[in-house]
Amino acid sequence: MKIMIVDDAIFMRHMLSGIFEKAGHSVCGMAASGSEAIERFAELKPDLITMDIIMPDMNGVVALKEIKKIDPEVNVLIISALGHKSLISEAVKAGASAYVIKPFKPEQILEAVEQLNGHCDA
What we know:
The chain has a single domain (2-117), classed as Response regulator (Rossmann fold), CATH 3.40.50. Helices cover 49% and strands 22% of the residues.
């Protein structure tokens, strides 16, 4: 599965990348902002996007909505802090496939990805 990681924190991008690659997934790209995510999505065509919500220039909910306009079928896994519950709810209404709350364990991320994997292979 090709995964694009979207998070403004470089340590989080690298941590997620390590989790995915260790599990045999391919990280096809990363983005540090919502606007960069939209740009990179069009060129990379990932099977799954992990999306932070709070980012500079454009939050993850707005980016999610724009990406869904390009490809309504893409799976988006929201990864955000518990304090952003209303934004997570908004993201789910906007088409997020699933979400994981920070801080998380690697198993939680991989479990969410495996649940979505059936949707990605279709």
